[in-house]
Design brief:
single chain, 410 residues, Aspartate Aminotransferase, domain 2, four-stranded antiparallel sheet, 15 strands, binds D-malate
């Protein structure tokens, strides 16, 4: 008899975004006349076409694969040198990162989940609340938690509540943790961490011999020049941090798939017998066994993001989405709601009107305004009473969402 990984049975309902899609489908089927009015501001999926530089490079990559003289089969599992080098030069200049510390992948969702492969059992895992659900669910699948309570809080995880009083940036805990997930700019709250706050986390990690799992998928949206884009801007992080980066939100690669992980050689973990092992070595070994690399045309397209034309095109995309975020912030404020995020991040995090839970607000927005938002409680129990609006949309859709919001609540 084949037994299953029973940890999966501890997972709550469906993964958040498919669950939202299911509810939207059910609403559309029951209300066909309204279905065409629906505007989706739920999942943070880009809407604007790929930068032209990426499209050209991808075409060129495909052409190369179509000619005998330039055909390539399997690429290096860790990524092509041309892309690893471009990342170092354009994203980590002066930060002491070398190309062999960059590992290319098919995206950050996979990386932040798969990273658990290289860590042992029994680590104390700290997670902010609310949080990107992938961090929690993958720890549940890996057997790093007990059961969830009625609010969806798992036994065995160290939750770090984030709320208006701490600006949605968790302070370092008094307790010990071995692995700490941090995401800045934050998904879902849109909060950013100051240099001093990140310094405190690096100091904590070094004192506790812990590893920071730093998700910087939204770094390109930072507007404030004082906010660090990378954890490696903080002294000491090269001994205690792993950083996740993505081309999804800056280059619009959500459907193309490409991301990367930075693991400095000086980041090590304990082998439990008094020895230390570089984590990059384990991640590289894992890649070689379980992954055959992102495709060549995709890596060509990713590298083109760093060309002069590519950079200008990405800047225009960021400006477009941040313009949307500004409009959404203004509309929610005018509707009398408390508004967070949306300044250095493409997510606007909003307090629900008095008396409404996150899912009540989701239902109200869907049934009365035909706008899909994400209920804050889907990101953890501390997200209850909030909802998230994604700024990834066309300008005309966002303007319409603002009009409907004001008509509904204003
Ligand atoms: C989100 O909406 O939180 C993101 O799109 C999810 C993701 O990037 O996987």
């Amino acid at each position: 008899m084949a037994t299953i990984n029973a940890n999966f049975l501890k997972l709550k309902a469906g993964y958040l975004f498919p669950e939202i899609a299911r509810r939207v489908r059910a609403y559309s089927e029951a209300n066909p006349a309204q279905a065409s009015r629906i505007i989706r501001c739920g999942i943070g999926d880009v809407t604007e076409p790929l930068p032209a530089a990426a499209v050209e490079a991808m075409h060129a990559g495909v052409e190369e694969l179509g000619r005998r003289e330039t055909f390539r089969g399997y690429g290096p599992e860790q990524g092509y040198e041309f892309l690893r080098q471009a990342i170092v030069e354009h994203q980590f200049e002066g930060l002491g990162i070398s190309a062999d510390e960059v590992f290319i992948s098919d995206g950050s969702k996979c990386d932040t989940g798969n990273i658990l492969d290289i860590f042992g059992q029994g680590n104390i895992i700290a997670i902010t609340d609310p949080v990107y659900p992938v961090y929690v669910d993958t720890n549940v699948m890996a057997g790093n938690t007990g059961d969830a309570d009625a609010k969806g809080t798992y036994a065995g995880l160290l939750y770090l509540p984030c709320h208006p009083a701490n600006g949605f940036v968790a302070a370092v805990p008094n307790e010990h943790a071995d692995l700490i997930y941090l995401c800045f700019p934050n998904n879902p709250t849109g909060a950013v961490a100051s240099r001093a706050q990140l310094e405190a986390w690096v100091a904590y990690a070094r004192e506790h011999d812990a590893i920071l799992l730093f998700d910087a998928a939204y770094e390109a949206f930072i507007q404030d020049p004082t906010i660090p884009h990378s954890i490696f801007e903080i002294e000491g992080a090269h001994e205690c941090a792993i950083e996740f980066r993505s081309f999804s939100k800056n280059g619009g690669f959500t459907g193309v798939r490409c991301g990367y992980v930075i693991i400095p050689k000086s980041v090590t973990g304990s082998d439990g017998m008094g020895g230390r092992v570089p984590l990059g070595q384990l991640w590289s070994r894992r890649h070689s066994t379980k992954f055959n690399g992102a495709s060549y045309p995709v890596q060509k397209a990713a590298a083109a993001i760093f060309s002069e034309a590519g950079k200008a095109q990405v800047a225009a995309l960021i400006q477009h989405y941040m313009g949307n975020a500004k409009l959404l912030r203004e509309a929610c404020t005018a509707a009398g709601l408390s508004v967070f995020g949306g300044v250095d991040a493409p997510y606007v995090w909003v307090g629900c009107p008095a008396g409404l839970s996150s899912w009540d607000m989701f239902d109200k927005m869907l049934s009365e305004a035909q706008v899909v938002i994400t209920p804050g409680s889907g990101f953890g129990s501390a997200g209850e009473g909030f909802f998230r609006i994604s700024a990834f949309n066309s300008r005309s859709n966002v303007e319409e969402v603002c009009r409907r919001l004001l008509a509904l609540l204003g």
